[in-house]
Each structure stands twice: as structure tokens, then as C-alpha cells.
Amino acid sequence: MSTESFTGKQTVTIVGISYRQLDHWARTNLIRPSVNDAAGSGSRRAYNYRDLLELKVVKKLLDAGIRLESIRDVFSYLRDHLETDIASAHLVISGKNVILCDGGELIDLINRGQGVFNVIPLSGIRSEVDATIISSRKTEDEIRLATKIVNS
To answer: Residue 73: is its pLDDT beyond 80?
Structure first.
């Protein structure tokens, strides 16, 4: 599916936006068509699958109440700093903030990465505590055994 191209009409239907929005976003460089850009009267834009994914991300952010100006900031940051495609990013919406969850960090994209928070993964806590309990029991058993040998 990644080599297939989509017309503007197909794109607006798939993404769920108006043609006017699509046209505006292309003319203002938010999402430009990767396959064929408009080059004068009568030319047709053609979008690829990745373009559709990015357009859908824009729509989702708009639906979540994020302003278009902020979405431009989000995409600018993601394009500059994300190594994978934008549609695979993990974004958290908090009020009017868009936060990227990137590995062990949360990055505030509206503030251009200024608010960076560490994420503490809790999934390994159970195994860490269990391992410490087992280790301490072995140590206690070794001490008891050593004390028994010394006292005998």
C-alpha cells in the first residue's frame, strides 16, 4: 500500500477533512503531497500513504482541540527530532498541550521541547522487588549457616 498514490478527492474522504483544509495545509506547507504537488492550473496533487497518516494525525489533533498554529509547532518538532514516521509517535494530549512520549521522556511539543519530564517505568518493579527478596533470603540463610558452623 505504501507505493500507492491518492488523489485529493480520495485523500479528503480517507482522512475525513474538507478539500479546503487539504488545499490550505498544502499551500501553507503543513503537509505537502509527496507524490505530485500542484504546479499551476489544472495540475493535480497526489498523496502517498505516509501523507495520509500525517494528515490524519493533524485531524486528530484538531479534533482534540489543539490549535492549528500549535499543530504546526508539533510537526516542526517531530520532523526535526523524530527518527521514525510521525504516525508512529506516542502523543499525549493534556488540555492544550501536546506531549511526546519518547522512550523514557515526555517532551512538551507546544513549548518546543522545553518541558522534559522523565518517565518511570513501573513494569519492572515487581521483578526487581522479587529478586531483592530472593537475594536477601539467600544472604540470611548463608548467615544462619555460617553462624551455625562457627557456634558448633
So the answer is: yes
The domain boundary, picked from 11, 34, 63, lies at: 63
C-alpha cell, 134: 530472593
Q: Is residue 152 part of a domain?
A: yes
Per-residue pLDDT, averaged over 44-54, amounts to 90
Count of CB atoms situated within 10 Å of the CB of 134: 10
Most confident of the ranges 21-25, 77-81, 126-130: 21-25
Establish if 46 belongs to a structural domain: yes
Q: Kindly write down the DSSP assignment for every residue of 59-121, as one continuous string.
A: HHHHHTT--HHHHHHHHHHHHHH-SS-GGG-EEEEETTEEEEEETTEEEETTTTT--EEE---
Q: Is residue 135 included in any domain, yes or no?
A: yes
Residue type, 47: Y
List the domain range (segments joined by +) for residue 9.
1-63
Q: Which of 91, 100, 101 is nearest to 121 (CA)?
A: 101
Q: Domain containing 25 — which CATH number?
A: 1.10.1660.10
92-110 pLDDT, tens digit each: 887 888 888 877 778 888 8
The answer to whether residue 24 scores a pLDDT higher than 80 is: yes
